[in-house]
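ugh ok fine here u go
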Amino acid sequence: MKAINQFRTRIFACLCILTGIAGAAACSGAAQQPEFRTVTISNLEPRRDVTGAIVDAHDGNLLFANGRYYLYGTAYGKTAGYGINNRFRVYSSPDLEHWTFEGELLKSPPDGIHYCPSVVYNSRTHKYILWYNWYPRLWDGQVAVAVSDTPIGPFTIVNLRVQLTQAEQRPGAGTVFVDDDGTGYYIYSATGALPDSKNGTAPPDHSVRVERLTPDFLASTGQVSDVLATGCEGTSMLKHDGRYYAIFDHTCCFCKEGSGARLYVASNPLGPYTEKANINMSPNHRPTVAGQQASIARIPTPDGVALIWIADRWGSRPDGVKGHDFQFWSEPLRFDSAGNIMPIANTPEWSLKVRVGPAVSSHNSKPYIWPKKKDPNPLKIDPCTGSPLPPDE
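structure:
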């Protein structure tokens, strides 16, 4: 019997090797019981990496893959956020407390202003897919897609101008949602376009829609929802008990006061959606958390997946450095008996038992960083506030 078990173990290991990195990770997870540990999430101070530097990753998402957590975001540094030196970065952690800078996601992308990276794993192609919003010039919105074999990249740009149904309407930021069956969707807002040639009217600004993606997540199928709302941004989706939830609120533009989180529910990812409530709004009609939604994270726990609401607290940095703005991570979202998400609490600090992985990153010993460029057309006036902008540092 011992010999048979050893033979089975060897066969299993061979199959893991043949299936590649993603398959090997899955095999390793099947062979070893996952480890869980209680960690503390603080919203009172900025996250820091293992060197002590403040984590500069905003308006992105958190992904659990191959036993580690990967935090993706836009790095702003000391800039005002409107220049060509915005860059996408990734940090990894075994436990949501100890973060390692793994490098930048794109190698020398074309000049433009970059925002809101959204990274997911495609189980069909075994690739990591990055969708992001960029502007060759403000506010000529484009959506691009890139691909990588690993969660840290660098990602190879596949298409700089994805042909969404609203490609001519200057699409803004969005996030990718992957359904239980592996189907991908992109929820985003379109900022608007020139007047329609037929009737002379312009489409509503910042119209939110959901589009179904192709099986490889590299393009849109052209299947799109109706407009969920207008004048909105900061879009995310999740699924719970067979229902689909879209969450977003009014445009914020790095606003310090934050934005709400309107909740829309549907039985189909393409809708129709029904507005239910605003889960980040206090009785005095001010955001409970002074932040703007970035994404919804899925955290593995012993009791299943916990859904965490992540928001950027623009203007919260005590030292005036934009890249040091705090992020707010909510306690796990809760649902009432009717299936609606309960209001978010402004919790300073909370704890959760989560899955933990290897303490040391096995990826980058020398993270890639592309050199800073001189902006040929730096903005002098803040497009959101109208106030003068200092030179980018």
